[in-house]
Task: inverse folding
């Protein structure tokens, strides 16, 4: 048997080598599955819900007027006199004596003479008096000897404060502002970019929640403000109706008392008659001044009540807004901390190193 041709063996070896080299040819690398970054500290948290707080109540007391029991006793004593009476009741005598403590007989006669029927009629119907006569009656009625014969009163109060003058401006309340969010400066690698995107998404949700709750609080305040403002006009319009009857009763009592006084002038005597006439005149003038003062005070009280209600509504609103902003700032702080932690840990999430 002959040995195989060397040429044939060489050809066979070449074919095997070519096959081996073909099998070792490089292939395309299959695509890798996309890497998902996870940032547990960066989440869109919902703020605690803050609902509108009801404003604190405003305490209000109306003005009061209390008639003098001593003056009523004098009027009753005069009304009880008649043509057959021979003595003057002690309460009437005491009243005349008290007037004479406050003004001399001569000054009393001069002042009484100034009050003509025309002056008195104007005083009764309109409350108006010449300035000099009004001042003299005011001096007379301010004398301690006549205090018991004049009505007493209390001014209206709002939250315990008496109202009798102009109101001061309502102090503005500073609202606690929300802290501004500051995005971290990030490197341009994929992990940190993903962290920044997650942060901004969460921050947008957080801001939207803050804005939504803020809008609810502000809308509630605006509605309340409108309601408070609307209360002013009806409040003021109702004040005169309270004092019109008081003026009428006082005028009737004055007219009746003066008629009884004139009917018993002879029994009383000139000195007592003049003193008691001035007492009635001073009491009517004092009452008219008092009613005007209290009426103006109650009108001012309408404004004071509105101002107090508005101030308390503002305080409630500002407190609620501060809560919302405080909750926002707390959540923002947590979010910022989560971003910082995410950036620091990015090298562990597929970034190598």
Result:
């Amino acid at each position: 048997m002959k040995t195989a041709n060397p040429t044939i063996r060489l050809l066979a070896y070449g074919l095997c080598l070519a096959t081996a080299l073909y099998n070792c040819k490089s292939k395309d690398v299959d695509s890798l599955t996309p890497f998902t970054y996870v940032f547990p500290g960066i989440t869109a948290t919902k703020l605690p819900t803050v609902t509108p707080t009801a404003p604190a109540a405003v305490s209000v007391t109306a003005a009061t007027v209390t008639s003098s029991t001593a003056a009523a006793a004098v009027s009753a004593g005069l009304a009880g006199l008649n043509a057959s009476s021979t003595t003057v009741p002690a309460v009437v005598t005491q009243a005349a004596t008290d007037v004479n403590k406050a003004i001399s007989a001569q000054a009393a006669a001069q002042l009484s003479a100034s009050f003509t029927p025309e002056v008195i009629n104007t005083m009764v119907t309109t409350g108006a008096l010449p300035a000099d006569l009004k001042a003299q009656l005011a001096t007379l009625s301010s004398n301690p000897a006549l205090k018991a014969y004049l009505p007493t009163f209390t001014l209206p109060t709002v939250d315990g404060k008496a109202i009798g003058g102009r109101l001061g401006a309502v102090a503005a309340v500073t609202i606690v502002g929300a802290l501004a969010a500051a995005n971290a400066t990030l490197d341009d690698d994929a992990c940190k970019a993903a962290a920044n995107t997650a942060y901004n998404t969460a921050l947008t949700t957080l801001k939207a929640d803050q804005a939504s709750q803020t809008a609810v609080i502000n809308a509630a305040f605006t509605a309340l403000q409108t309601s408070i403002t609307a209360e002013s006009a009806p409040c003021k319009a109702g004040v005169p109706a309270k004092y019109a009857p008081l003026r009428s009763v006082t005028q009737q009592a004055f007219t009746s008392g003066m008629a009884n006084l004139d009917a018993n002038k002879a029994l009383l005597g000139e000195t007592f008659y003049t003193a008691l006439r001035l007492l009635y005149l001073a009491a009517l003038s004092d009452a008219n001044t008092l009613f005007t003062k209290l009426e103006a005070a109650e009108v001012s009280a309408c404004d004071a009540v509105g101002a107090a209600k508005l101030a308390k509504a503002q305080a409630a609103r500002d407190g609620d807004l501060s809560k919302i902003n405080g909750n926002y700032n707390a959540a923002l702080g947590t979010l910022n901390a989560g971003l910082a932690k995410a950036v620091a840990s990015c090298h562990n999430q597929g970034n190598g190193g």
